[in-house]
């Protein structure tokens, strides 16, 4: 029920004053003898009294408090697993039965004065009819589906969730980990009995290899019901058979492995297909094929480390670099190893160098003439006087060769490459380095990656700084002891992933050549899934390398069969990203062109791959245990499809569908009501008409 309440901004005594003023005004106006009878005089008195009172009362600023009630019906959300695994595990008749049962349940819920909403994978609160479900979504992420419902129905009248699924999830976390504040009634769909099948579940390979090298591809084959069966396994490229091997499947439910060793072909991206020969008894052939995408490159990045003597830091850096196949890493320590100066190195690391004697300076000068990037590591023994003369980024005014122990702190504003927040936290917890103690001055080209932290105070002095020095990239690590960083991280997490990423990103930045092109066009990733759009970034620069916008960019994409697709778009400051949808699995080449100032045409080209998601075909055996436990944990119940809709409806109704009453309160200025204006106008007009009619004017 809606309610009203009249409020005044002034004391209630002002209302009495308005009444008295209106009475006095009407009394003095109509107490004299008039040309009309007493009854008309009383009517005129009443009209003037009400008119004056309304005007005076409105001047006091009265407010109308309005209470409006409305009812929020209870909502039952249908969370439906519309993934491909249900289609693999159910025939068309079974799927139709699922849809029919859910539609019937929705109708009965509507009769009970409640609402239903439908959520599926990839759809949020979809409006389409349940009978239109195609069960063709390529992944199953049950936890994300339930999290969406919990987020969207916070503080709403959500009565329960009916989850229809086979219990299989292949993305996201275990749904049993989530804490849900609503009851979940689970409906098991699918067959829990494993089916006779051969499943090429995983293929393991290195994504990068080098021209002329041999590389392995390892295939893991799972099977059910083919004990002792001998099957052929094929390795193909572009439909051409490269190798054929046979494998004997062992056990009723077994796992077998087979390895192909293949020679790398020409430079570029290659798609290798591994297939198992189809068998008549198999449940599905969808999981008999897997693809391996391998990039063949011609050469490695060459990195040289010059040092005066062995040191644990050198081993830590070497261990980090040698994990990456695309780097060649050489070490030169006078009297211990030899140096081939004819090799064109992309990066030279100077450890403990430049030294006081300067014996290695001619070697350093040789690489500086080639504009080779340099990374200085100021370990003990390095001459700061010689260092200050040559590096051009940092000057250190040391105090009698004193050193200080400082911990690192990541500069959150550093932009040359990205470190995630968790990685920054790990780096900030690394043990101290020994650095020169003194005053540090930086050139304008210096970008600090790591600051020096003394105790709990973060200083403005650098530990690790990068920049451009006389046209070449330069890095400076102002200390020694990074071996302790790697060891400390391993002690904490049994991994050196963050340390390896830090030095990998550092070396990649320093060894890569600066891109001076005025037009750059590239995909944001090298690999995409067929379900996702392909995203390209476009960058256009003027003669002073400032970004410019408004250029028309033409794009041509060509697949492995030679079919081409053309697109065009204009880059803007708010959107320099272009999206392409609908490309199928395969390797694609692209060429983008743009006309810059002076009618000069620039071109950018490259390649990318699109993979098909086969997650739904890798596991088709329903898991009702997850559904039972999820229902028990949230206070719901587990049902089978055959119990739709009656048994499910009966249990839902036990919780009773209750509407929630919400009350909205509004304050409105009474003077803003148009109705009052017309009432006042009517009173004044009626009084004027009566006086005129009776000869009063």
Query: Which structural class do you get from the secondary structure elements?
Result: alpha/beta
What's the main sheet like? 9 strands, mixed
Helicity range: 25-40%
Question: How many beta-strand runs?
Answer: 34
Distance between the termini: 49 Å
As a percent range, the share of strand residues is 35-45%
Across the major sheet, the strand order is: 17-16-18-19-24-23-22-20-21
What spatial form do the alpha-carbon principal axes imply?
Answer: extended
Computed CA radius of gyration, to the nearest angstrom: 39 Å
In the predicted model, the low-confidence regions spanning at least 5 consecutive residues are none
Number of helices: 15
Folded structure, characterized:
By secondary structure, the protein is α/β, with parallel strands linked by helices. The chain is 26% helix and 37% strand. The protein contains 15 helices and 34 strands. The strands form 7 sheets. Strands 17-16-18-19-24-23-22-20-21 form a 9-stranded mixed beta sheet. Strands 5-4-3-6-7-33 form a 6-stranded mixed beta sheet, with helices on both faces. Strand 31 and strand 32 (601-611) form a beta hairpin. Helix 2 (38-59) runs antiparallel to helix 15 (674-693) and helix 6 (312-321) crosses helix 10. The radius of gyration is 39 Å and the shape is extended. The mean pLDDT is 85.
């Amino acid at each position: 029920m809606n309610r009203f309440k009249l409020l005044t901004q002034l004391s209630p005594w002002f209302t009495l004053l308005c009444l008295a003023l209106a009475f006095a005004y009407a009394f003095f106006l109509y107490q004299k003898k008039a040309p009309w009878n007493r009854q008309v005089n009383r009517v005129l008195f009443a009209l003037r009294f009400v008119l004056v009172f309304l005007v005076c009362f409105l001047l006091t600023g009265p407010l109308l408090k309005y209470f409006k009630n409305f009812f929020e019906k209870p909502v039952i959300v249908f969370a439906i697993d519309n993934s491909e695994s249900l289609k693999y595990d159910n025939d068309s008749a079974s799927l139709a039965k699922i849809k029919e049962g859910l539609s019937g349940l929705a109708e009965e819920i509507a009769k009970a004065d409640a609402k239903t909403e439908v959520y599926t994978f990839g759809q949020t609160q979809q409006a389409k009819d349940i009978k239109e479900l195609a069960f063709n979504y390529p992944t199953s992420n049950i936890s994300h589906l339930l999290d969406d419902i919990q987020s969207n129905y916070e503080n709403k009248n959500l009565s329960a969730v009916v989850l229809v699924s086979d219990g299989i999830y292949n993305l996201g976390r275990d749904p049993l980990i989530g804490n849900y504040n609503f009851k979940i009634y689970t409906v098991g769909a699918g067959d829990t009995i494993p089916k006779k099948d051969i499943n090429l579940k995983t293929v393991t390979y290195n994504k990068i290899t080098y021209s002329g090298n041999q590389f392995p591809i390892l295939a893991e084959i799972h099977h059910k019901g083919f004990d002792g069966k001998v099957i052929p396994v094929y390795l193909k490229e572009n439909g051409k058979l490269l190798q054929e091997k046979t494998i004997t499947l062992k056990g009723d439910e077994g796992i077998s492995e087979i390895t192909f060793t293949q020679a790398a072909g020409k430079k570029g991206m290659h798609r290798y297909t591994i297939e198992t020969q189809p068998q008549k008894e198999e449940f599905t052939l969808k999981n008999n094929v897997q693809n391996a995408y391998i990039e063949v490159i011609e050469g490695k990045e060459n990195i040289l480390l010059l040092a005066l003597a062995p040191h644990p830091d050198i081993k830590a850096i070497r261990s980090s670099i040698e994990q990456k196949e695309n780097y060649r890493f050489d070490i030169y320590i006078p009297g211990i190893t030899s140096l081939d100066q004819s090799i064109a190195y992309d990066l030279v690391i100077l450890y403990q160098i430049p030294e006081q004697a300067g014996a290695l300076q001619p070697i350093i000068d040789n690489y500086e003439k080639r504009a080779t990037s340099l990374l200085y590591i100021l370990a003990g023994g390095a001459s700061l006087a010689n260092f200050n003369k040559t590096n051009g980024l940092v000057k250190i005014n040391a105090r009698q060769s004193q050193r200080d122990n400082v911990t690192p702190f990541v500069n959150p504003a550093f932009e040359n490459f990205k470190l995630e927040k968790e990685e920054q936290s790990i780096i900030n917890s690394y043990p101290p380095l020994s650095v020169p103690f003194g005053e540090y001055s930086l050139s304008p080209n210096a970008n600090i990656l790591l600051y020096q932290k003394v105790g709990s105070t973060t200083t403005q002095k650098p530990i690790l700084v990068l920049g451009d020095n006389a046209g070449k990239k330069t890095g400076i690590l102002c200390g020694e002891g990074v071996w302790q960083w790697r060891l400390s991280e391993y002690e904490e997490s049994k991994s050196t992933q963050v340390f390896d990423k830090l030095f990998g990103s550092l070396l990649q930045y320093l060894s890569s050549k600066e891109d001076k092109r005025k037009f750059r066009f590239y995909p944001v990733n090298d690999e995409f899934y067929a379900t996702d759009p392909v995203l390209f970034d476009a960058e256009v620069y003027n003669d002073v390398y400032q970004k410019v916008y408004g250029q028309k960019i033409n794009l041509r994409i060509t697949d492995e069969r030679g079919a081409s697709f053309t697109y065009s778009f204009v880059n803007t400051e708010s959107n320099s990203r272009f999206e392409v949808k609908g490309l199928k699995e395969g390797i694609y080449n692209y060429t983008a062109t743009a006309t810059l100032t002076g009618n000069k045409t620039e071109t950018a080209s490259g390649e990318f791959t699109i993979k098909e998601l086969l997650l739904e075909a890798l596991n088709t055996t329903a898991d009702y245990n997850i559904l039972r436990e999820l229902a028990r944990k949230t206070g719901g119940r587990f049902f089978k499809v055959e119990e739709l809709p009656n048994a499910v409806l009966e249990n839902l109704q036990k919780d009773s569908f209750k509407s929630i009453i919400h009350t909205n309160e509004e304050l409105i200025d009474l003077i803003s009501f148009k109705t009052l204006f017309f009432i006042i106008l009517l009173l004044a007009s009626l009084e004027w008409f009566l006086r005129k009619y009776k000869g009063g004017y």
